[in-house]
Amino acid sequence: xxEPDDVKKTAVxxxxxxxPLQQFLxxxxxxxxxxxxxxxxxxxxxxxxxxxLLSQGEAQSQAYFVVDGIVRACHYTQEGTERCKExxxxxxxxxxxxxxxxxIPARYQLEALSACKLILMPLSxxxxxxxxxxxxxxxxxxxxxxxxxxxxxxxxxxxxxxLYLREHSPLWLERLSQGQLxxxxxxxxISLSRMRRRLQDSF
Length: 203
Prior knowledge:
The protein has one domain (about 5-155): Sandwich (Jelly Rolls), CATH 2.60.120.10. The strands form 2 sheets. A 4-stranded antiparallel sheet has the order 1-8-3-6, with no helix packed on it. The protein has a 4-stranded antiparallel sheet with strand order 2-7-4-5. By secondary structure, the chain is an alpha+beta fold. Helix 8 crosses helix 9. About 50% of the residues lie in helices and about 20% in strands.
């Protein structure tokens, strides 16, 4: 039999482990009362590097808040080519917006690039009208990011893209492999290595 004190301890533990996601939702405009209502549906996870969180082609029902580690979204072609869409670092909520909005199977696979500490949140939570400020905040973030990424890819050469990441996202250069970084920039790892040497020699 579960004692009242055990229930209280479990509730306190849930609040503690899921606090980063709580703070994220509150910052987007959610009320404390509404977030606390959904707290029992949040789940802290520890996953190893390489763990698939969402397979390409599957229906998406969960979002993952990254507490520690790196998650990536990538597409695998029939020929086996890997195309990276995005990387998600600490403090980011990871899910596929098009799949969520249109209720279609995932075009990308979500996988842990490193060992990760995550907080799972059912995407059905965002259907609550009382969380509309969160919905709008997430959509605004995504719109701005999409515009920035389009400019990043369309208006810059590979060298300019690398220099932009070096200035604005130095964490990427520290924590991603050369192959992963090259894939995102749109060149081969060999080309990136040569570019880095040339830039280093120019300073």
